[in-house]
Automatic annotation (TrEMBL), chain A:
One family name in Pfam for this protein: BPD_transp_1
Bilayer topology: Multi-pass membrane protein
SUPFAM superfamilies: MetI-like (SSF161098)
Protein name: Phosphate transport system permease protein
Alphabetical list of InterPro entries matching this protein: MetI-like, MetI-like_sf, Phosphate_PstC, Phosphate_Transport_Permease
GO molecular-function terms, A-Z: phosphate transmembrane transporter activity
NCBIfam families: phosphate_pstC
Lineage of source species: Bacteria, Bacillati, Bacillota, Bacilli, Lactobacillales
Residue ranges of domain ABC transmembrane type-1 in the record: 86-296
Main localisation: membrane
Record's subcellular location: Cell membrane
CDD domains according to UniProt: TM_PBP2 (cd06261)
A biological process from GO: phosphate ion transport
Automatic annotation (TrEMBL), chain B:
InterPro entries, per the entry: AAA+_ATPase (IPR003593), ABC_transporter-like_ATP-bd (IPR003439), ABC_transporter-like_CS (IPR017871), P-loop_NTPase (IPR027417), PstB-like (IPR005670)
UniProt cross-references to Pfam families, sorted A to Z: ABC_tran
Superkingdom, taxonomy of origin: Bacteria
Protein name as annotated: Phosphate ABC transporter ATP-binding protein
Length: 307, 254
């Protein structure tokens, strides 16, 4: 073969490197995909067994309010009504997000619009620190400070959705705040200049232009916070009271999907109805996380369209 | 010809960014209902000077300004000056078209909303008048509620001008308003500015000598923070007094 032809057909060194790099990243990414799919498959197969194997009605699982998988009701059906946990989970999630939002937006405005220097020097590190505190610490503070405080004010045990909301509020606040700060920082400087040049005051500029332009980013931050609140197990379990009852009010003991899971999964036998029912709760949790993720993507896309 | 009325006078204006002196004692007056062009090479201080006229430099930390600038005889750097009010009287258009991410309609009435105008008819009228003045009404009248960001660069810039006009300022400052636009859009904006001259005082920073000679009545030439020459545009371009001006406008540097 003539040498030029040979040289052309042979792979160059950089082409080989390129190929090797591609292969390595492909292997890594497929590994991640396999793990995620496997988790989904495992949780789904276990979680759906409640409905297919144990013949529990999906509708009654979602709407009945008595959770006692080892007992049977008058008709001989096992009592697996997940409504108390669903209500508890959504309750603490939405309440903590509603309380956290104004604080996060206020802190974000302070850090980006009012005093960048202070924000960067002091608030930013504080917020980063708050993210790094383990959830057991939050739970412990909730248990020893928040619960007695609520008991003192409202009576009762002090455990319940209100205590869970307080703990989660502090836990998601840094997440929502730092994402709000990012969203506000991403608002181009020229919007602010244009607004001020038209005779707007600083405050008018903030709420008419900056906040408005940052809304998609702020919403994404709130949903991120909600996803975190929804999935948080340990801290909530420590303060919510762990009674699988439909909460009568905000200060009566309740439970969430995660708190029932963490307290129950070690006490059941694999393959039994009690165990399968817990897997169904886990599946619900997984699907909700997926829903939160899709919501975040959808908001992000909407924000892009407006730009 | 009657003596033209002075609307802005500035005397001995120095501006420092930290220790750096960007303006070295500018004395410059502007007549009402005239177009004045500020020209000069990049970094000569013409944009900086323009921004002192509505106090936009206040937004930059570490800026010191000395000297006096008066609008209708009132010192705008006096401690009692209301900057918000000043910026309603002295509007500004920027180099990059910067409409808000709202509809065209909301962009134009932004200044009126700030002033608390709620009457729908008044707002509608202001939108139509301002967009007509900015020579863009015919192009956008059928989609006033579309996002202003969907327009072309030239259209966006005219919406930005309409947004300033809606506030009814006395003076309009334009900081290289056409340098980011194509020649056709630039010509449209130049013609529009000529049409606005009877009602507004226009001060324009430009890098284009042709633009300055086409539309301005007076021209000021800046170099390294100094005002070198200020004269009628025709006179300056045909018969510059200073050597530096001549070198610049004949393209020997800059």
């Amino acid at each position: 073969m003539d040498p030029i032809r040979e040289a052309m057909l042979k792979k160059s060194h950089s082409a080989k490197l390129e190929r090797r790099g591609k292969t390595i990243s492909l292997v890594c990414i497929s590994l991640i995909v396999i793990v995620v799919v496997a988790i989904f498959f495992f949780v789904a197969s276990k979680g759906l067994a409640t409905f297919f194997q144990n013949k529990i009605n999906l509708w009654s699982f979602l709407t009945k309010s008595v959770w006692n998988p080892s007992m049977k009701d008058a008709h001989g059906n096992p009592e697996v009504g997940a409504l108390p946990m669903i209500v508890g989970s959504f309750g603490v999630t939405f309440l903590s997000a509603i309380i956290a939002t104004p604080f996060a937006v206020g802190a974000g405005i302070f850090m980006t619009e009012i005093s960048r220097k202070w924000g960067q020097k002091i608030l930013q590190p504080v917020i980063e620190l708050l993210v790094g505190i383990p959830s057991v610490v939050y739970g412990f503070i909730g248990l020893s400070v928040v619960v007695p405080f609520i008991r003192h004010i409202f009576g009762g045990t002090g455990f319940g959705i209100l205590a869970g909301t307080f703990v989660l509020f502090v836990m998601i606040l840094p997440t929502v705040t730092s994402m709000t700060v990012d969203a506000l920082k991403a608002v181009p400087r020229h919007y602010r200049e244009a607004s001020l040049a038209l005779g707007a005051t600083r405050w008018q500029t903030i709420y008419r232009v900056v906040l408005r332009a940052a809304i998609p980013g702020i919403l994404t931050g709130i949903v991120f916070g909600m996803a975190r609140a929804f999935g948080e197990a340990l801290a909530v379990q420590m303060v919510i009271g762990n009674a699988a009852l439909l909460p009568k009010n905000l200060v009566s003991p309740a439970s969430t999907l995660t708190s029932v899971l963490t307290s129950g999964i070690g006490n059941t036998v694999m393959g039994s109805l009690e165990n399968n029912a817990l897997w169904s709760l886990a599946l619900l949790l997984l699907l909700m996380s997926l829903a939160f993720n899709l919501l975040i993507r959808w908001i992000g896309k909407k924000g892009e369209l407006n730009k | 010809m009657a003596e033209a009325q002075k609307i802005i006078t500035s005397s001995d204006v120095h501006l420092f960014y930290g220790k750096f002196e960007a303006l070295k004692g500018i004395n410059l007056d502007f007549n009402q209902h005239e177009i004045t062009a500020l020209i000069g090479p990049s970094g000569c201080g013409k944009s900086t000077y323009l921004r002192t006229l509505n106090r936009m430099n206040d937004l930059i930390p570490d800026v010191t300004i000395t000297g006096t600038i008066s609008l209708r005889g009132q010192n705008i750097y006096a401690p009692s000056e209301d900057v918000v009010q000043l910026r309603k009287q002295v509007g500004m258009v920027f180099q990059q078209p910067n409409p808000f991410p709202f509809s065209i309609y909301e962009n134009v009435i932004y200044g009126l909303r700030l002033a608390g105008v709620k009457d729908k008819r008044e707002l509608d009228e202001a939108v139509e008048t301002s967009l007509k003045q900015a020579a863009i009404w015919d192009e956008v009248k059928d989609h006033l509620h579309d996002s202003a960001l969907s327009l072309s660069g030239g259209q966006q810039q005219r919406v930005c001008i309409a947004r300033v006009l809606a506030v009814k300022p006395d003076v309009i400052l334009l900081d290289e308003p056409t340098s980011a636009l194509d020649p056709i859009s630039s010509t449209q904006i130049e013609n529009m500015l000529l049409g606005l001259r009877d009602q507004y005082t226009i001060i324009l920073v430009t890098h284009s000598m042709h633009q300055a000679s086409r539309i301005s009545d007076k021209t000021a030439f800046f170099l390294t923070g100094n005002l070198i020459e200020f004269a009628d545009t025709k006179q300056m371009f045909l018969n510059p007094k200073e050597k530096e001006t001549e070198d610049y406008i004949t393209g020997r540097f800059g």
